[in-house]
Amino acid sequence: MTAPSILIVEDDADIWRSLQILLERAGYQVLPAGDGVEGLRQFQEHRPDLVVLDVGLPALDGWSVLERIRDVSDVPVMLLTARGLETDKARGLLSGADDYLTKPFSNAELVARVGALLRRSPPVTEGPSVYDDGRLRVDFSTHEVQRAGEDVKLTPTEFRLLSVLVRQTGQVLSPRQLLEQGWHDPSGIGTGRVKFTVLNLRRKLGWDDAENSPIETVRGFGYRYRAPAE
Fold first, then answer.
1. Contacting residues for 187 by C-beta, under 8 A, at least 6 apart
2. Which of 44, 49, 115, 190, by CA, is between 20 and 30 Å from 226?
3. In Å, how far are 130, 219, 227 from 136, measured between CA atoms?
4. Is the model's pLDDT at 124 over the cut of 60?
């Protein structure tokens, strides 16, 4: 089998080289890109299995690169940021990133998270191909979502999380369960990803009122999707 390919978009040559050595030792193929423009060119040409993307790139920054990747692909993207600000983490997750690491990070953690993202399996196809409760319609095969008859554009990450919730309507799922089923990450690391994605889902679906949202927060336990009352 061919080793998974990882595109590293990083303008710091020392960091890029250390990541290359680390990931190649872990058995991966590594593709180089020193800026956002080169990163997008490499992405289009090679279609890697995963992208490790620095936020602070010159000219075309990481946010713009992530947006353009998400327009065309569901490939896992891990963001690297020099800041530990919650706003940066939230922005990345809400923009469609699958994970993030704050510099400096441990080599072991990066390799573990890369492995978890690459193990992410395709969306579950068992059961009905469409969920429709009259209020929300989710087509699992085409990834189309409608709320009250209006199309809703979701990122791949948001769609996966919504799919997990509606497939198990009424069941309370912990953040760890949602990470495992929606992100296919059994590590349980970074449950804040779930919170940020739920918040963005509610906003896009017009369910900002947390108390009355069909995507309910069950304090101390997790989240569930509530079907409309009969």
1. 112, 113, 116, 179
2. 190
3. 10, 24, 9
4. no
Question: Do residues 6 and 92 touch, judged by C-beta distance below 8 A?
Answer: no
- pLDDT, tens digit (0-9, with 9 covering 90-100), for 59-108: 889 889 998 888 778 889 999 887 666 677 777 776 778 888 888 888 99
Helices (H), 84-173: 86-94, 107-118, 156-167
* Measured distance CA(107)–CA(97) in Å, rounded: 20
Residues contacting residue 1 through CB under 8 Å, at least 6 positions apart: none
Q: Are 164 and 181 in contact (CB under 8 A)?
A: yes
Burial of 200 (0-12, 13-18, 19+ CB in 10 A): buried
In the chain, the amino acid numbered 55 is: V
pLDDT-based confidence at residue 125 (cuts at 50, 70, 90): very low
Query: Residue 131 gets which letter from DSSP?
Result: E
